[in-house]
Amino acid sequence: MKALLSSAYLAPVEYYAWMLAADEVLLEQHDHYVKQTYRNRCIIAAADGPLSLTVPIVKPETEKCEMKDIRISDHGNWRHLHWNALKSAYRMSPFWEYYEDDFRPFYEKKWEFLMDYNQELQDKVCELIDMCPIITRTTDYSKTVEPSIQDLREVIHPKKEIASDGKFKVLPYYQVFQERQGFLPNMSIMDLLMNMGPESLLILRDSLK
Fold first, then answer.
1. In terms of CB atoms within 10 Å, which of 24, 121, 158, 181 comes out highest?
2. What single string gives the DSSP state of each residue in the chain?
3. pLDDT tens sequence across 45-95
4. pTM score above 0.85
């Protein structure tokens, strides 16, 4: 099975579950950039509940701009803010001290293109979880795809409920602030990784029927 996914910034658990299950992952780079998606935002489990972190982008000169051409903005000192938010949310988690140095460079170095930044973060996450997906970028955009490809480009979305087709199921795991706010499902992969470490692979494996 091939999975067709949009580019995403520290995507949610569901996204990585599909990556693990797929024989090959196709990353869509020719879709038009759309606001308020996982392309430039992630949601983490912070002390006061779900917290959305958004990577600012340079506004395209044209109304429609392909994802591969979207540039990251330096506006608002976002790298510092995101890193502090991650540290605040996960410094008490079991695996923060193990992975902190792996992620720190992503909030110190500057990337020009959002697509490249997302994919290098994705590669690091896969490395730490011990996932080895075969990933290729799309060569053009197609609204419809062949039946053998699982088209998830618009399925995994922060404004949508978890798909009710029964394929993805939420598996609870330890979260730092769970006693205060209950279990928060389908957070960013950072939440799973920092709380479960190597066992993240087992959660991802068992999250798809």
1. 121
2. -EEEEE--SS-BHHHHHHHHH-SEEEEE-SSBP-SSSTTSEEEEEETTEEEEEE--BPPPSSSS-BGGGPBBP-GGGHHHHHHHHHHHHHTTSTTHHHHHHHHGGGGTS--SBHHHHHHHHHHHHHHHHT----EEE-SS--SS--TTEEE-TTTS-TTSPPPTTSSB-------TTHHHH---TT-BHHHHHHHHGGGHHHHHHHTB-
3. 999 999 999 999 997 878 789 999 999 999 889 999 999 999 999 999 999
4. yes
Quickly count: other Cβ atoms within 10 Å of residue 81's Cβ: 13
